[in-house]
Amino acid sequence: MDLKWVFYDWYGWNRSLFETLNSGLPEAAQPLAHLGSALGSYWAAPFMLAALLLWAKHSQAPLARSPARIVGQAHRFALACLLALVVTSVLKWGLDFSRPAIVIANGVRVLAPVESTHGFPSGHSVYAALVLGTLWPLLSRRLQAALVVTILWVGYSRIAMGAHFPADVLAGWLVGAACFVAATAALARMRNTSAPIVRFGSGPDTDKKP
Description:
Elements: H1 3-7, H2 13-23, H3 30-39, H4 45-58, H5 67-95, H6 100-103, H7 123-135, H8 141-160, H9 166-194
Helix pairs in contact: 3-8, 4-5, 5-7, 5-9, 7-8, 7-9
């Protein structure tokens, strides 16, 4: 059994879905695809981190949007970005899947210069998933809905621009989510390990001699 044909090509549906989405964007809406692609760029990560820290510094809101909560999410975001960069690079260079313009050749609309290889997973989708995981607990339900739409927009823009197949985008979301979960677990473990152990009956006064 060809595992790539099953899990990546989806018995041909990956290519068919790409062709439908890639050709379905009206010419007038092409600037929206460029904007959506820009929103998923890893180059925005330092600005995202700085924005979180500034938000925490000037935040006066209680509970979920407290400064400590925002700083905690900033730490998770930073570690998740580093982890995702490593994982994504290993997958891109290790698997070295070709981009749509190479696989299909004719009939692919490419709106921006892209590499011919290293297509799996979509790095833009990875970063978008990291942003989703970071901001989700800090936003209201209305803004959470807007964030989901933005993440979908980023994924669609990579297909519409001819840079990735749908499987690349889906894998990017999964890789980003997995890296954020792993970063959250790692930071929680570090916090628990570094916390002082207090045994029952011990304390500053129990060890004092009369």
